[in-house]
Amino acid sequence: MKYLRRFEFMTLYQQILESSVPVDSQFATLSGEELVHVKLSFRVSPSHKRFGSVQNYTYEVGSIDQILKYENQLIIADNAFRGFSWLNEELVGRSVIWLMPREEETKERHWLDRFIADENLRQSSLREIVVIGGGILLNAGAYIAEQIGSDLMYIPTTVLAMSDGSIGGKVRANEVEDGLYHKHAYKSFYEPNRILIDPRFLQSLPDKQIAIGLGEVIKHGVYQSRVLLEYLASDDFRPQIDKESLLKVILWAAALKEVCLNIDPDETADGSHIIMRGGHEASDKIEESSRFEVPHGTAVAIAIYQEMSQKRSELMPLLDACCKKFSIPTKSP
User: Fold this and answer.
1) Are residues 228 and 167 both part of a single domain?
2) Which end of the chain is more exposed for a tag (fewer CB within 10 A), N or C?
3) Is 52 found in the same domain as 13?
4) What CATH number does residue 139 fall under?
5) Percent of the chain having pLDDT more than 90?
6) Shortest CA distance to 148 belongs to which of 113, 192, 174, 104?
7) For the domain that residue 276 is a member of, what is the CATH number?
């Protein structure tokens, strides 16, 4: 009772930090088969349009054949995987559209509206959109599903998408007009019905993509979990050669997000917003000024580094170690 009363008088952010401690204890020692059995559940905010049909959505590790088993599915997949034999075997007989992810095109609102019209998706009998790809395609698929009112399934394929982009229900689309680049000019929420992490996608990730994705993982280390940040900087974390350790930090960050969004699904200013949007105001400007040449995860890492450096944060030695270890830049180009 005394603990509950203390919890009641904490700010939302303090409640999140307190509730993150058991997550850190669990993941600090998690390994092997235990990782495969991780299953999370995320609340949908009552203020979001999907709340009437989806109050919670699951996030779990598995094989994509667990999702590719329904009729009337449209699969939107990253063109980079077109040559993957194991994936093609899973997609035999399925309706697949292969797209090349580009911030200024595939995630651009006008382009997406033309795509919906050209594919006649509003008049189709689609039951659900399944997205196989990174953050850009997840946003594209969410925008399409929202516009046509279909169910939505995510199979994220990058570190950033697995640990961050697939979670929270955000729908974001850019606009490019008269040569001006507007990051996330369109903002909405449309939660997926399910998120499935297939570890096979981690095996082919280049080191650069891993480093880009770790920007969002570092974010949780800085604003929510020093234990995670210490693990990232340690010799035990070797994502280029030890994919189990990479899966571990992805799931760790996702579990920390579960704490954030289940306590504060609306991301209020004194709550989960502090963590979920950590570094993002500055990172959006970095991306815009670079005409989207700087990847999102890299921009987030730069923004966080600059913020912590200005504050002379005690976390700077760990942050420095992470940036050097993964060759993450600390200044805007």
Assistant:
1) no
2) N
3) no
4) 3.40.50.1970
5) 83
6) 113
7) 1.20.1090.10
Burial of 29 (0-12, 13-18, 19+ CB in 10 A): exposed
Could you tell me the pLDDT band of residue 9, with boundaries at 50, 70 and 90? low
Look up residue 305 and give its two tokens.
């580094």
Residue 230 to residue 53: CA distance in whole angstroms: 40
Pairing of strands 56-61, 39-43: antiparallel
The verdict on 189 and 214 lying in the same domain is: no
pTM: 0.92
Domain that includes residue 254, residue range: 1-30+205-333
HEC letters along 131-155? EEECHHHHHHHHHHHHHHCCEEEEE
3-state secondary structure of 84: coil
Helix (H, G, I), strand (E, B) or coil at 261: helix
Strand pairing class (194-197; 56-61): parallel
DSSP-derived letter for residue 329 is -
Residues 6+ apart with CB under 8 A from 215: 160, 296, 297, 298, 299, 300, 301, 304, 328
Cβ atoms 159, 210 nearer than 8 A: yes
Distance CA 221, CA 301 (A): 11
Indicate the residue type of 142.
Answer: A
User: Backbone phi, then psi, for 202, in 5-degree steps?
Assistant: -70, -25
- Domain identity same for 42 and 151: yes
pLDDT at 5 over 90: no
User: SS3 for 6-66, per residue?
Assistant: HHHCCCHHHHHHHHHHHHHHHHHCCCCHHHHCCEEEEECCCCCHHHHCCCEEEEEECCHHH
Name the pLDDT band for 1 (thresholds 50, 70, 90): very low
